[in-house]
Amino acid sequence: MSNRSASHPVPQPVTGNPSRAVHFRAMVREDWPALFELSRVIWYADSEEIADEEVQLLASIIDISLLLKRTTAGVVALDDETERIIGVVCVAGGEPPPRRVQGWHEVDIAKALERGAQIGTERGDDTGAQLGAFEAEMRRYLEEMRTHLDKAYDGEVTLLLVEPTYQGLGIGRQLLERGLAWLHEQSCATVFLDTDNTCNYPFYEHLGWKRVSEFDADLTIFGTLHETVEYLYESPE
Question: pTM for this one?
Answer without folding.
Answer: 0.89
